[in-house]
Amino acid sequence: MAAAGQIIPEEVKSRLLRTEQDPRPVVVMTCGIAGSGKSTLSKAIAASYPSFTRISIDQIIASRHGLYGVDYPPSAHAAFELEADEIYDATFRQLLKEGKDIMLDRSHYAKADRDAVLAEVEEAGARRVLVYFKAERNVLWRRICERKAKGASTDGDGALEISKQLLDRYVEGFDVPDGEGEIVIELK
Fold first, then answer.
1. What does the DSSP assignment read for 44-72?
2. Contact 31, 133 (CB under 8 A)
3. What percent of the chain has pLDDT over 70?
4. Which CATH number covers residue 61?
5. Does residue 110 form part of some domain?
6. Global pTM exceeds 0.85
7. Are 50 and 164 in contact (CB under 8 A)?
8. Which domain holds residue 94?
9. Could you tell me if 37 and 185 are in contact, meaning their C-beta atoms sit under 8 angstroms apart?
């Protein structure tokens, strides 16, 4: 496996640091469908840039309840997700208030949600970096199957079991960023 720093594209790296010219806190938002590599990039940024705090719904659920289908039944996931959502939002707002660099590991599939986060980021005087993972459905499905074949994640990332039907719903409901200042990572 490549070192964490090698996973981060140069265009993303160039926007992660505060500078004398722009000392604002940085909020990185991932944007993509399941299997696109959001958590891989998020973990690499958190490992390579210690000023960043990574926030992930999957990580919150795993830290409180264990692993999907191992430590808790799939039927409990929706309730745990609601709980994690509240923790995610509270953590984000607290870190933003403290002027910290933040790595938001989430799909951010709806433009309205991305706009709401951007408004909070700007109101706090921070700077947003939006990283969009662009991939065809068949590429996502291949990656999801490869992840599943590797076995359960020990940190909860990618825990939810994704069927072809669920992936289709994700693809159909995804608002592709366009003109939002996004950095595009195209997956093959």
1. HHHHH-TTEEEEEHHHHHHHHH--BTTTB
2. yes
3. 92
4. 3.40.50.300
5. yes
6. yes
7. no
8. 24-186
9. yes
